[in-house]
Design goal:
Blueprint: H1 6-16, H2 33-51, H3 55-60, E1 64-66, E2 69-71, H4 74-85, H5 104-138, H6 141-152, E3 156-161, E4 177-180, E5 186-196, E6 205-212, E7 225-230, E8 232-234, E9 240-243, E10 246-251, E11 262-267, E12 274-277, H7 284-290, H8 292-320, H9 343-375, H10 383-415, H11 426-434, H12 443-454, H13 461-478, H14 484-510, H15 512-515, H16 519-545, H17 553-570, H18 572-582, H19 587-590
Parallel strand pairs: 3-6
Antiparallel strand pairs: 1-2, 4-5, 5-11, 5-12, 6-7, 7-12, 8-9, 10-11
């Protein structure tokens, strides 16, 4: 029941965004429209033929911990071997590192298809690329030769080892230690918990990126360093050598992503655990957070893909499932109609479409900003794009994780009783997506990050860039009669959101606890305004394309109707949230723990 809507991807990539124009840049000269379509064809084929077929089986038969090792369905490794042979592990990396130097916008579109098909299997390369990005940015030449190139080739996989049993998301409280070994390396001791991809028997090696403390380092986040800790030590010729002291203690069993191993690891328990310092001491968290934009965008993209997969599955079901009669048909013997004929089913489908396609527009826009930054001749030339990307990243991660999850819930509802069974994929997609509000930081943490840090950067310069970009599209839409009302509505919401941002920022400076008390609501409010912007952009593209000879009128009308739905049903919620934010309500601060 899950299929890729290539018309949707083509519209987002080439009508809403000028992705084809990236070929004019020297960095992306090999990726003209023909080459891009070829990449998308290959990704779709691998996703549908090699990732999708084992998705449901993997969910029911999750990896097991037996005799100290992971046992899992062999089709995971087989699918990733095909993925590796096609070069997708290194798609976004520079050619000098062995990569394909693919535009991030195109690479994100391929990831979207793999995540739609089977997010558990797709998680392994996603995690590997996150770890590889850290080594590429901050590793030494020797570290890149030993670890990065095999990761780009897909022979070594990677993980992020941040959380610990006692610390959870509070990285200031991690306790893992790293002691100099007298030979230029370090010996690590400690425990890591909830490590996605933390162990498996698929790859030749696993490269763990581990946060730990050096002797004498300051307490808190300023005393955390970053280390490369391989599962197997690497010989001088690049081959895996002796086993390192990273011990798999057991597997955690989550409600979703059940095919991705989630490990508890002990470091230095039975064998010495050797690690290699990345960059300078005590800068581990700053390195990690510099590279978190892409990891967070990847989580948001996965959440979007799961929302889109549920929408596609429920849409197909709604078209084929006959049930009930329309309210004005009083004949009990009349033939039942497909449930898509019922207004409430169409409402649920529109809500899913608005969430999934609005989120996809945002995620691809964020990827396009990454391309603009990479291709810029200097940091100064990409300054505004970087500010905007920094500001949008918490929204791009968290809005899909919350509201594409709601879309998955509606997909279950469309299927009725069947939706809750394993016979259809929608209940699995819901469970998979539920984890994305935790991955790469909880929803609440991203609210604090957005309001407490990102809107404050350079005295609110990112908010000014966002407002200027939104208003540029509002100006275009205002000149289109069919979109004038939407343009005016969005401009009004933007003005109010900027004013609320200023009031909250001032409060945060005086009373951080009060100013940040409802930061999660602020994140949701800003997310709704940004997604409305994304829908206005899609509506503009649909109007432009409507006069083309090859225009799919039904497809484009669907875009305009989804835009109407979002502005009518969803965007008004942002005003209610702003009223609460402007009131500086302190209910959550004044309630006492003993009152619960």
């Amino acid at each position: 029941m899950i299929s890729v809507d290539r018309a949707e991807l083509a519209f987002q990539l080439f009508d809403v965004l000028p992705t084809a124009n990236l070929a004019a840049l020297i960095r992306f000269a090999d990726y003209d429209r023909t080459a891009m379509d070829g990449v998308l064809d290959t990704a779709e084929r691998i996703a549908m033929e090699h990732f999708l077929p084992h998705a449901a089986v993997l969910d029911l038969d999750e990896p097991r911990f037996e005799d100290g090792k992971v046992v899992m369905d062999e089709r995971v490794g087989a699918a990733l071997a095909v993925y590796r042979e096609a070069g997708f592990f290194g798609a976004g990396f520079d050619r000098e590192l062995g990569g394909m130097q693919m535009p991030e916008t195109l690479r994100a579109a391929t990831d979207f298809m793999f995540c739609m098909a089977n997010i558990s299997t797709a998680a392994y390369p996603m995690l590997t690329m996150g770890a590889a990005n850290l080594i590429a940015a901050f590793g030494t030449d020797e570290q890149k030769a030993l670890f990065l190139r095999p990761m780009i080739e897909g022979r070594f996989f990677g993980t992020m080892c941040l959380s610990e049993p006692q610390a959870g998301s509070s990285l200031a409280d991690i306790a893992t230690r790293a002691e100099p070994d007298g030979d230029g390396g370090y010996l690590l001791t400690g425990s890591k918990m909830w490590i996605s991809g933390g162990d498996q028997e698929i790859s030749e090696n696993i490269v763990h990126m581990v946060l730990a403390r050096l002797p004498g380092s300051p307490a808190g986040v300023k005393g955390v360093s970053l280390f490369i800790v391989p599962k197997f030590l690497v010989n001088e010729d690049g081959s895996p050598g002796d086993r390192n002291g990273v011990a798999l203690v057991g597997l955690n069993h989550k409600m979703g992503y059940r095919g991705t191993t989630n490990a508890a690891l002990n470091l230095g328990e039975d064998l010495p655990c050797r690690g290699y310092l990345v960059g300078e001491p005590d800068k581990g968290l700053s390195y990690m957070f510099q590279m978190m934009n892409q990891a967070r965008i990847a989580v948001g993209l996965g959440a979007t893909a799961l929302g889109a997969a549920g929408y596609r599955a429920s849409l197909l079901y709604a078209r084929e499932r006959p049930q009930g009669r329309l309210p004005d048909n009083k004949d009990p013997h009349g033939a039942p109609v497909p449930i898509i004929e019922h207004a409430d089913v169409r409402r649920m489908l529109l809500a899913q479409k608005a969430a999934a396609e609005g989120a996809l527009a945002l995620l691809l826009y964020a990827a396009f900003l990454v391309d603009a930054i990479r291709a810029a001749p200097s940091p100064e030339a990409s300054h505004d794009s970087q500010l905007l990307l920094d500001l949008l990243t918490p929204i791009a991660k968290s809005w899909p994780a919350e509201f594409c999850l709601e879309a998955n819930s509606l997909a279950i509802q469309v299927l009725g009783g069947y939706g809750y069974t394993h016979d259809y994929p929608v209940e699995r997609l819901y469970r998979d997506n539920r984890a994305n509000s935790i991955h790469e930081g909880t929803h609440g943490i991203h609210g604090l990050d957005l309001l407490g840090r990102r809107v404050m950067q350079e005295n609110g310069a990112g908010v000014k860039v966002l407002a200027a970009r939104v208003m540029a599209d509002v100006t275009q839409a205002h000149a289109v009669p069919a979109l004038t009302a939407y343009a005016e509505t969005l401009a009004e919401h933007l003005r109010e959101a900027v004013a609320t941002t200023g009031r909250l920022a001032g409060t945060v400076g005086i009373d951080p606890r009060l100013g940040l008390a409802n930061a999660t609501l602020y994140l949701d409010m800003m997310g709704h305004v940004v997604i409305a912007w994304m829908w206005l952009r899609q509506a503009l593209a649909a109007i432009r394309k409507r006069g083309a000879e090859d225009a799919n009128v039904d497809f484009l009308q669907g875009k305009l109707t989804a835009c109407r739905y979002f502005f009518t049903y969803e965007l008004p919620k942002a005003r209610t949230q702003r009223a609460l934010l402007d009131s500086l309500d302190d209910t959550t601060l004044t309630v006492r723990p003993e009152w619960f």
